[in-house]
Amino acid sequence: MVITGSNAKMLSGEMATVLTGRYLEINMLPFSLAEASQFADRLGNAEKIQDDFLKNGGYPETFTQRSITQSYLQTLFDSILYKDIVRRHKIRNATDLNNVAMFLLSNFTGTFSYNDVADDLGLSSVSTTKKFMDYLHEPFLFYYLDRYNNKLKLMKKAPSKVYVVDNGFVASKAFNLSDNLGKLLENQVFVELLHRGYDTEKTLFYYHSRNDKETDFVLREGNKVKELIQVCYDMSKEKTIKREVDSIVECAGELGCDNLTIVTWNEQRTIEKKATPSKLCLWVSFKPPLFTWRIADLLYSPPKGDFYVCRDLHLALTGRVPGIRDPFYRSGQALHFAAGGEPRVQEAGRRNRCSAL
At residue 284, does pLDDT exceed 70? Predict the structure, then answer.
């Protein structure tokens, strides 16, 4: 039995109040970059798909008619706001709710506190502001990311970051004076992490070091930090490289994590750095989303393994994906192929390509 309906009547979190027994809840998100690439091959090459997705988002209804994307998403945003939220919660002052929504949309990927939002918008009640922001999260319109801390009390007191469920809403509704490509890429990475099953309550956070250096995403597995991810659109300047790398390495030293990734727009390489204060020798890998996600269907990661087995013949033979230089294997294990047999993994350095067939 499949049950669906309108958020104006019942939210997914309330299913348990009316359904008895066991049920499976599936959260639906707009297309990921990999899904969009498969669906929108009409756009031509991969670079064009990547650029289009960054700015226009992944709602399936807009892919066949990009000319109506902005008008469609404007209508969808207003429909969620006034039908799923205002009507359902019987909100009298819909203007204040709309102001809060537009404030969050214009400041996406930024930090906020409820007091700051209330002050900036001239709202009289902080509790009402918090209530409005909770309402905007219920239909999966906005997500809030906590700052990572081992103490829950300190985590909840720290400012949170806000993300929107689809980049297309930014172009169609937000008041911005620039393209905000860096913010759009960071928001895209956040939604991709949601696609991969990370939860903003348990496994996904951001982090500030003691020296106020920030890492965009902290991925947690069990009681350990699994990976740190930094997002930077353009890493062409040495000053930018130093800032971003020093930031993620310092956070890694405090959190004791040696799996570091910087997602860039079109650059891929790996560098070695020393972490302070732990003095760990860390490898920081730069990965463009084109390699990280669109080429992901060429790679297979075993459920309990930490290495990739490649499926693509060109990658198996040469260690390269066409158009992408020097693929990086996460765990630093070399992938070897025995003649006529199955691939086997041989421990090696942290950065290897397929070296034998």
Answer: no
For residues 235 and 74, give the distance between their C-alpha atoms in angstroms, rounded to a whole number.
33
Which is nearest to 292 in space by CA: 336, 227, 347?
227
Q: Is 160 helix (H, G, I), strand (E, B) or coil?
A: strand
**Residue 350 and residue 332 in contact, taking contact as beta carbons nearer than 8 Å:** yes
Nearest one of 162, 195, 157 to 30, comparing CA atoms: 195
Instruction: Decide if 170 contacts 187 (C-beta within 8 A).
Output: yes
Alpha-carbon gap, residue 330 to 259, rounded angstroms: 8
- pLDDT value at residue 177: 61
pLDDT one-digit tens code per residue, 150-198: 888 889 889 999 999 999 999 888 777 677 899 999 999 999 999 999 9
Which sign does the torsion angle of CA 314, 315, 318, 320 carry?
positive
Q: Which of 212, 285, 198 is nearest to 251 (CA)?
A: 212
Hunting for tokens 């790679």 — which residue is that?
299
